[in-house]
Amino acid sequence: MIYSIATVCLSGTFRERIEAIAKAGFRGIEIFESDLITHNGSVKEIRRMLDDHGLEVVTYQPFRDFEGLPAPYRQKAFDRAERKFDLMEALGTDLLMVCSNTSPHALGGIQRAADDFHELGERASKRNMRIAYEALAWGKYVYDYRDSWEIVRRANHDAVGLCLDTFHIFSRQTELDTMLNIPGDRIFLVQVADAPSLSMDHLSWSRHYRCFPGQGDLPIDHFVANMHATGYDGPFSLEIFNDQFRAGSAEKTARDGYRSLVFANHAAEKTPDEDATSIPVVSPPRDIEFIEFALNDTEKKSLTKLLSQLGFSHAATHKKKHVELWRQGNINLVMNMEPDSFAQNFHQHHGVSVCAVGMTCDNVKDMVERAKKLEFTPVYGNPNTDTHGIPAIYGPGESLLYMVDGSEKPAHWEREFQWHSDVEAQAFLNKVDHIALSMSYEEMLHSVLVFRSMFSMRTMPTVNVTDPGGLIRSQALQTPDRGVSFTLNSSQASRTVSSRILDQYAGTGVNHIALSTKDIFATAAFMDAQQTTTLPATVNYYDDLAARFDLSDETIAKLKRFNILYDEDENGSFYQLYTTLFAGRFCFEIVQRNGYTGFGAANSQMRLAMQAGEMAK
Amino acid sequence: MIYSIATVCLSGTFRERIEAIAKAGFRGIEIFESDLITHNGSVKEIRRMLDDHGLEVVTYQPFRDFEGLPAPYRQKAFDRAERKFDLMEALGTDLLMVCSNTSPHALGGIQRAADDFHELGERASKRNMRIAYEALAWGKYVYDYRDSWEIVRRANHDAVGLCLDTFHIFSRQTELDTMLNIPGDRIFLVQVADAPSLSMDHLSWSRHYRCFPGQGDLPIDHFVANMHATGYDGPFSLEIFNDQFRAGSAEKTARDGYRSLVFANHAAEKTPDEDATSIPVVSPPRDIEFIEFALNDTEKKSLTKLLSQLGFSHAATHKKKHVELWRQGNINLVMNMEPDSFAQNFHQHHGVSVCAVGMTCDNVKDMVERAKKLEFTPVYGNPNTDTHGIPAIYGPGESLLYMVDGSEKPAHWEREFQWHSDVEAQAFLNKVDHIALSMSYEEMLHSVLVFRSMFSMRTMPTVNVTDPGGLIRSQALQTPDRGVSFTLNSSQASRTVSSRILDQYAGTGVNHIALSTKDIFATAAFMDAQQTTTLPATVNYYDDLAARFDLSDETIAKLKRFNILYDEDENGSFYQLYTTLFAGRFCFEIVQRNGYTGFGAANSQMRLAMQAGEMAK
């Protein structure tokens, strides 16, 4: 199977895109009409450039408005095809992708279209060319792969085959079973694209919102399993029109694209070629083992004050490095002030920040193998300064995601520390509930792919939250048992809390760290006694709570007393309490879940209004 | 008629929004549930703040999921309503806006809903409150104003009336004739929103893409004419959910909102109240009379060299100021180097740029009156340095749009110049075809309103153009006889040609000035003889032209020889030739139209690829 990508997926000049595609590991490329038109060089020169980069042109596309035309348009379409064959010859490709007719001149009729394709097949085979026919979701008569397959079948010509595109199939909600009846060798091209669940016209959805497999909501797995079942082993190609990709870094986008193909090809349950290209199946991480902060000694002083107010204790000190461990319940917070470390390098760029997150994993060796197959580069820290040897990959904002071996107790990294036996954990707080990050939308797509392909997380429906400065898009991801959760927040408006935090960090960074408690009121009372400053809620908020939920006046009064927010879903109740922002960038959220499975989206507008007020001070 | 706006239209804190709303001239305001929740102050304090700003709360909204509920939900809904009445009492408003039920618990049936509203009317009237019922486009059973009207009619209660919202009506493409049967005093609230023509689900369209009347594609005029015909004279209110407005300047958005209401209220053919609030109807401008550049002496030297190469002559010199006039055919280019002028102040902020455009108008006095009614502030230049006395309003990027009296020949401003009788105009070029501007999307919405409300321009469908750095959205506007045309370009991607030009100017600026010729080949030959550098097109572009159009090899060769681009539409052919960028920001485009009515969108991708290449050098 040859992994391929259409040039339109990426930004930049034709040359820049070719370089990015080759560098990312692709061997195939789809050339678009517009590539040639905008490139200032001959087709011959383009072919040489592709050869130099080891790229095979899997198809030239699209050839539009061909089938079902009456005279005189029919003859003109064949003339156009011959011109395209000339071009393809010069370009060195033998496959022309024809998409279903959208012209007002087109006539319907399966047999009429089949006859046209038979004749095109005749012409193509004379020139050693082939034709792949695709049903566009917005084709005038043909917009269902079952019809395009029937046309290909009736065209009955060796040079005429099918092109399947996941987007066109899923956007029309066409069933996939018919695929299983198509012989693999009658499929000439497979294009794979994901997309978020949006209800808008097929064309706009397709032209602006497609994304790489694993970044959207379409059931790509099911398609790929059926594709393998047909025996198809031709090009597996990305054709993604996405406004962010078109504006982003070609190199980074191409790398994610390649990764998404490997992931998509192996995410299906049955993968026939269990050969060198197969990748290990791994379990999702169990929970967050530790969160590591990069900070200097002054910032450490302020942060540890806040941690003490939350009930954390200084549990251990690293035997060799300027690193401290603060602990409560199962929450480990590492503070890294060690000079010349990854943390301090990170600190230099981003200031006080979370530079790494450790996740408890099973079978770390397989995870490292999987990471490599997915074109991540596992790192083990600086061998001169880092002794723990825990493998990590780069996650959001180039912070590290450590894969900690969960079978060792105490963990290997814990043995590097000198433990303070006199410390008694308070244990108001017992676990990291989730970590919320602020990032650009481009980085959000990248991060979704990281979390899904490596850590088996699932996406929850995207939520739009209103901030006084504009809208924030929020996407939650979590492991199937909800052991590890991240929420990713992004805003195109520059004055939202999310965007301002991005400015503070000069890039992606942690927005808040949510820690769970079993008793929010006891925790709040403790925090209050410690004089912890918490984010206030408005009087009107509590009046509204009283109208929305069956809460006693006494409960409302208690919530109000401690600035605790409240929500319910069909599974249960939820309590939230935020500290004020630390260094203008992140805060701690204390949560209590009684069955509730969301992240308090209903309270976000209130919280953001309060945080925006805090930032404006 | 009281002009009103919903707080959700604007960005910022509740207080900031109230200030912006009052400042823009509104007397009415709609208060949203979320305003209260996020505002850290009591309802009493809010009421005082509104009073201080002279704002009347025309409605509190929305009250959701009320009608058609079975027990026990029905009783709870009435309980909720009573709580809202309490709140409204404190807030000082008597109108509760109820939108049609979207809850899965809701039951259908016109009579059932009517009974519920009758009961709600009873409760409301006991407290001196009233109810306005609105059919949401995505209501479960009620999504058509004809049904909500039938429910209100059958509810048969003085305290229950109708709320009409243009968005919900147009998005369902409901006919407007039924409106004419509704007595004006049975309508309690009119909400007006425009939107671009998009096909997506009603909810997403409504929540993100609404815009002010005059900024979108909905036939607001028709609605307003019918509204006046009913005799309605209650609140005329804006309820606009728009991502850009939510992120932009509250003050600027509020001002545009107020302007859009005045425009919408008077754009309808029949406006009954021809009183103090009526605004003069004016003719569209005839053509571009002049374009004024702000530049320094060095830049002037380079620009006049380029103008000479295009066949322009130095026709006149200002009698008192450091200003020159260059002319060809009916094109007047003014170069303003006068110290302490508006031009030089503009130059200080934006560098070499177009600081003003003069349009030939009929009845300038009425236009000035109209401008004032639309809350533009007419300016006449600095009385110490400007002698021409031509009125202007601020247009895109705070450049000036002059309204030149077309009845005087020579124009008043021409008499300020000393004419060089020895100059013979070359007249290859005869007229300004259009002016293309780069701006932010927010500014684009603002500019559309300026051009439509003041200069009777019409919008053409928005086009998306692919740039190597991302997508560019392009919106053309022109007067009905096409005498004056502008194209507005905006891009959310930072590396597009459009965005880079924006950077160069530090704001909105001219992208290109298109000048029309009757003989593109003669003009091109002249320019070539003058060694004018033109933007190249690719070899592949001309190969593709040959495949797309019936052009002789000779014509193709001639086009190629001079870098001329070509396009056709159903009305005729179009030729385009671009100079390279001047000062990295604008260029001249030479066009020949043989019936063609577009702006060469088919060639934009090629042109942008070439300009991006030029910028990268």
Automatic annotation (TrEMBL), chains A, B:
Enzyme class, broadest EC rank: lyase
Annotated EC: 4.2.1.118
Catalysed reactions, as listed in the record: 3-dehydroshikimate = 3,4-dihydroxybenzoate + H2O
Keywords: Lyase, Metal-binding
Highest taxon of source: Bacteria
Domain (Xylose isomerase-like TIM barrel): residue spans on this chain: 18-259
Cofactor dependency: a divalent metal cation
Entry GO MF terms: 3-dehydroshikimate dehydratase activity; metal ion binding
InterPro entries registered for this protein in UniProt: DSD, Glyas_Bleomycin-R_OHBP_Dase, IolE/XylAMocC-like, Xyl_isomerase-like_sf, Xyl_isomerase-like_TIM-brl
Keyword Oxidoreductase: no
Ligand binding (a divalent metal cation): 134, 165, 191, 239
Any one GO BP annotation for this protein: 3,4-dihydroxybenzoate biosynthetic process
UniProt keyword Lyase present: yes
Record's function text: Catalyzes the conversion of 3-dehydroshikimate to protocatechuate (3,4-dihydroxybenzoate), a common intermediate of quinate and shikimate degradation pathways.
Protein family: Belongs to the bacterial two-domain DSD family.
Descriptive protein name: 3-dehydroshikimate dehydratase
Native source organism of the sequence: Enterovibrio norvegicus FF-454
